[in-house]
Amino acid sequence: xSGRLLRWVCTGAVVGVLITTMPGASAVPAPAPDPxxxxxxxxxxxxxxxxxSAEEASETYHATGEKLKxxxxxxxxxxxxxxxxxxxxxxxRGEAARFARQQYQGTTxxxxxxxxxxxxxxxxxxDQGHVVRRAAAGRAATVRxxxxxxxxxxxxxxxxxxxxxxxxxxxxxxxxxxxEVDGRxxxxxxxxxxxxxxxxxxxxxxxxxxxxxSERRFEASGAxxxxxxxxxxSRQGDRALDYAVRQIGRPYEWGAEGPERFDCSGxxxxxxxxxxxxxxxxxxxxxxxxxxxxxxxxxxxDLIVYFPGATHVAMYLGDGKVVQAxxxxxxxxxxxxxxxxVLGAVRPDPGGRAMRGYTPxxxxxxxxxxxxxxYGSAQAxxxxxxx
Length: 387
What we know:
Blueprint: H1 40-104, H2 111-118, H3 122-193, H4 197-221, H5 235-246, H6 264-274, H7 283-289, E1 291-293, E2 303-306, E3 312-318, E4 321-324, E5 333-336, E6 342-347
Antiparallel strand pairs: 1-6, 2-3, 2-6, 3-4, 4-5
């Protein structure tokens, strides 16, 4: 990570609106000032607001996607139940129809009872009575199954339709949210493309200066005091970290879960999935559902969650460093743990025992290099727009 601008990255934050229409104001927005007329600090603030706005929409998009996935699974489950109940109703109707035909043809009714009364052999009469009672009970059970099955089928059909309607509404909402993210990221691109090379260099310099200041403040806070630089991970944590390190250099793309591109929580989720541990998709869900641990107990593979709204996440590497997917236009890289405001840490495998004889992964050349400015910054050869 590199600096204040990067702090507004990944999977959402409290939205900062660049232009707000106040009550009673004209419906026509005032023209934005020429970038050349704004100081570097203002340009940085504008970019921060745009990124925060885009990433809030991105977090909402992710959350809706998770709800849609669960809703579709529920709808499929209801469909399977409904199919079984309808098959049972079909069988009960067939059996009821057979009884009706027998009644019509005179093979049931009073004749078995009359034969029972006229029987000379009492034991045989008792046996026939048992058969008759069983037959009557069977017909009653068939009728009960038919009536109960039809009611259950009607109820399940109603639930299935409701689940389908909910899924359709979620899909429409997710499409709208995707368009919203695309529109906000386009605003970021337009602002960055309007800056001169000197302005971009000045913003980058301001960002790097602020990153260094932030890291010094984090170190001075003593948040990691008592945490050994080389504490060993669990075996699963080691595999997750190895996966994350192997993704260094791959581009960020919001909503991406690999294998070629990632967003911040997509990287951490996939890393742990490759280690055999399923964790939630979004940074907010990871913060809410995984075991929280103090920073003094950090070990490689743990997840560091950032910002008050838990809107960014990275994987702890050790030695005060993290592996993370920063934001659009940047690439997966190694950054200082304190370059963003740390909310806390979570451990996906709290029951995992620390390894013995742990060897940290070897980092590729340039793992910490590269600007996090995002769109408009210089990119590695062969790189394309990360959207």
